[in-house]
Amino acid sequence: MSLTIQTYLADMPAGFWFFASFCISFLVAAIAYPAIIYVAYRKDIMAVPSSRSAHTKKVPNLGGVGIFMGVFFVLAMIGGCLGLSDLMFLMAGLIILFFLGVKDDLVILTAGKKFGSQILVSLMIIVLMDIRIHSFGGVFGLHDLSYLPSVSFTVFVFVLLINAYNLIDGIDGLAGSVGLLSSLTFGVFFVSIGLMEPALVSFALVGALVPFLYYNFSGKKKMFMGDTGTMIVGFLLAYLCVAFIGINQNLTVPETLGNSAILGIAFVFYPLMDTLRVFVVRAFQGKSPFTADKNHIHHRLLNLGLNHTQSTIFIVLCSMVLGVLAFYTQELNINLQAILVIACGMLLFLFPYCFERREGKVYFLKHYRSRIFDISN
């Protein structure tokens, strides 16, 4: 690239690059998805429904390939134009997770290999990019972390979010919509304080998820994200969440948010809450926490008579309410805000368990006999 072109591109306003990251990712992914669906049908690379599936037909499950292509193309092209060398580490991590995910979608990987690779990729980002959680911000009396505890805790957060995101991918639109809402929220924040690299990642992810949701909700051209997609999106959301918390804990950065830890939790509360609840239920049942079942919150909503779209909308709206609550209560004492956000989040996401469905009718609580509403039609 000539010096003249480099100089011209460097002078482009930041808003241009944010918009370009969305548009380029959108176009690359939108072009890739039909080709992926075609190849999946020709080569029979499909998700076969099981006893716990919410679907009854085989569906292509390599949507994550399109998400990877959209995001990776943006990071490579725009990162190269702007000389954002740190994005190279993120790209390296994406490549590892991409091949890991594709192999898992095709032949199934052991849990040990998946966890080991996730820890390795997380360490790459945390150590080489110095993206980590420096402090608990005074939540419940916990403050600054020294380097090794900070790195260890941040690795735990990365691996937890990657796998929590994987676990919520059970109905149409849910994983994509939660990812879209979270990445868009983070992106708006990064733009507001002028941080180029995480903002580009945010809008590249939004651009790849928008066309994916079209196919994920489609009746005739349906495709799933697969483990490739859930690991890549979960990894990118973990990066954005940790970057959001870490940047707000940096006292040299202007316009930071003092309650970044609480806001970060609010933005990813649903996958964390669902994972925690499912693991507790399985533990009480004497099962491995990684045993597949139908105990997720979205399964409960389906049992109450909601369809996939309605269940997804309910969960996304709850996530939005929690995010707004966390944002508008940031003037409160940090511990009070933590209790308020966590309590409200638990009430919202456990609300469906206050109802039961019998013979096409939904009743409030197990022993409450008055009909709440009739969904028999």
How would you characterize this protein structure?
This protein has one domain. It has helices at about 5-10, 15-45, 65-80, 85-105, 110-130, 145-165, 175-190, 195-215, 225-250, 260-265, 270-285, 295-305, 310-330, 335-350; strands spanning about 45, 60, 355-360, 360-365, 370-375. The strands form two sheets. The protein has a three-stranded antiparallel beta sheet with strand order 3-4-5, with no helix packed on it. It is mostly helical. It is globular, with a radius of gyration of 21 Å. The longest helix is centred in the N-terminal third of the chain and has 30 residues, at about 15-45. Residues about 370-375 have low confidence and may be disordered. A hairpin with a 2-residue loop joins strand 3 and strand 4 (about 360-365). The N and C termini lie far apart (about 65 Å). Helices cover about 65% and strands about 5% of the residues.
Q: Give the averaged pLDDT, no decimals.
A: 84
Order of helices and strands: HHEEHHHHHHHHHHHHEEE
Assign an overall shape.
globular
Proportion of helical residues: 55-70%
Number of strands: 5
* SS field, number of helical segments: 14
Determine Rg (CA atoms, Å).
Answer: 21 Å
Approximate strand percentage: under 5%
Number of domains: 1
Q: How many strands, what sense, and barrel or not for the largest sheet?
A: 3 strands, antiparallel
The parts where pLDDT drops under 50 for at least 5 residues are 368-377
**What structural class should be given to the helix and strand makeup?**
mainly alpha
GO biological process, one term: cell wall macromolecule biosynthetic process
GO molecular function: metal ion binding; phosphotransferase activity, for other substituted phosphate groups
Subcellular location: Cell membrane
InterPro entries: Glycosyl_transferase_4, PNAcMuramoyl-5peptid_Trfase_CS
